[in-house]
Design a protein that fits this description.
- This protein is α+β, with helices and mostly antiparallel strands and 385 residues long.
- The protein has two domains: 252 residues, DD-peptidase/beta-lactamase superfamily (Beta-lactamase); 110 residues, Up-down Bundle (Methane Monooxygenase Hydroxylase, Chain G, domain 1).
- 29% of the residues lie in helices and 16% in strands.
- The protein has ten helices and 14 strands.
- The strands form four sheets. Strands 3-2-1-14-13-12-11-10 form an eight-stranded antiparallel β-sheet, sandwiched between helices. A two-stranded antiparallel ribbon has the order 4-7.
- A hairpin with a 2-residue loop joins strand 1 and strand 2.
């Protein structure tokens, strides 16, 4: 990597901090198995002026999804499920769902097709998120305990609440970003007999030595939690983030983990190595290739998600967005890049062609759609070849 371009990446982010739009950041780039850049910038907690460190703990939100997707694929490799299995085989509450159909100002409810495990992993199960719009399904979500700050029900209870709500689309007909990976987490519990947190701890975090990743942050590590600005620096309504200083009963497979740069880097290197790290193999290499390939084909993307989450030139695999070609997209990258991010601003991408991963950890929820492409642009500008 060009040293002056790496410096430019850091000074650009520092300028955003100096302008008061970004509290702080941790940046990591790795290529050919070697860390090329690892720096912390700005403040970990802007209220008390704690400096950001490389060991700061972040709400990674939807960067939980790739980890949980790997967990269920491990069960698939063990012969404990098929991706073609209906979700209702393991979670009976999903056997008789209905789709909310809106027409002429009226809402009707029609029986839905059965969603499969594959539908959950690729977000074609007909589910949605309550903050993506104002449809009948999304309104129904908002009238229940479903929400980003949900912490006081367990996963099985959450699943029954979710399954009772109408679907946004019939399964396998539309890509809609959703709470589907939360359901994957419940599925893992039903098949394994363990809580999601215990399953991940035993089968992923300990083997990969991700020792500071989990659904709850220990009290003696509270001082390392990264925080956003209390008020949106751009004048909007600041998105309320989960309180990591409170114990959570709900272990959200779609967005509940907290982690550090060092821990998540181990997961990304494991993926880049196609399922193996430091002699520990958790997934077959062909399974990793399968997960990071497009699984949508001709299934369309919902209008609510098309621009910011799955832009032109991209598809979706099993837990990851996937770049299908080098061109078309408004950000640089190789065909085969896979990536995702969290609603608080954290983001990563893996470029197998260049043997590269890059990660930006921030807690700036309202500015995430700006910093994600900016980071991608700066990383590719810094590469020599």
């Amino acid at each position: 990597m060009h040293d002056d371009r790496k410096t430019h990446l850091l000074t650009t982010l520092q300028s955003e901090i100096d302008k008061g739009r970004l509290p702080g950041a941790v940046v990591m780039l790795s290529r050919h198995g070697k860390i090329e850049l690892f720096e912390s910038l700005g403040l970990q907690d802007p209220e008390v002026k704690t400096p950001m460190t490389k060991e700061s703990i972040f709400r990674i939100y939807s960067m939980t999804k790739p980890i949980v997707s790997v967990a269920v694929m491990m069960l698939m490799e063990q012969g404990k499920l098929l991706l073609s299995d209906p979700v209702s085989k393991y979670l009976p509450e999903y056997a008789k769902q209905q789709v909310a159909v809106e027409a002429g100002g009226q809402v009707s409810y029609v029986p839905a097709k059965l969603a499969t495990v594959q539908d959950l992993l690729r977000h074609t199960a007909g589910l949605t998120y309550e903050f993506l719009g104002n449809s009948a399904a999304q309104k129904a979500y908002r009238t229940t305990k479903i929400g980003m700050t949900l912490r006081d029900v367990n996963n099985a209870e959450f699943s029954k609440i979710l399954a009772a709500q109408p679907l946004q689309y019939d399964p396998a007909t539309m890509w809609e970003y959703s709470r589907a990976t939360d359901v994957v987490g419940v599925l893992i519990e039903a098949i394994s007999g363990q809580t999601l947190g215990n399953y991940l701890e035993e089968h992923i975090f300990k083997p990969l030595k991700m020792l500071e990743t989990g659904f709850n942050v220990p009290v003696d590590k509270y001082h390392r939690i990264a925080e956003p600005f209390k008020k949106d620096p751009d004048g909007g309504i600041q998105l309320k983030l989960s309180n990591l200083r409170e114990e959570t009963l709900f272990e959200s497979g779609g967005g509940g983990l907290a982690s550090t740069a060092n821990d998540y880097a181990r997961f990304l290197q494991f993926m880049l190595n196609k399922g193996e790290l430091d002699g520990v193999r958790l997934l077959g290499s062909h399974t990793v290739d399968y997960m990071t390939s497009d699984h949508l084909g001709k299934i369309p993307t919902s209008p609510a998600c098309a621009v910011s989450l799955l832009p032109a030139g991209h598809g979706f695999g099993l837990g990851f967005a996937v770049r299908k070609e080098t061109g078309i997209s408004s950000v640089p990258g190789s065909a085969g890049v896979y990536y995702w991010g969290g609603i608080a601003g954290t983001t990563f991408f893996v470029d197998p062609k260049l043997d590269l991963f890059a990660m930006l950890l921030i807690q700036a929820p309202n500015q995430r759609d700006y910093y994600r492409p900016l980071f991608r642009n700066l990383v590719y500008a810094a590469l020599e070849s």
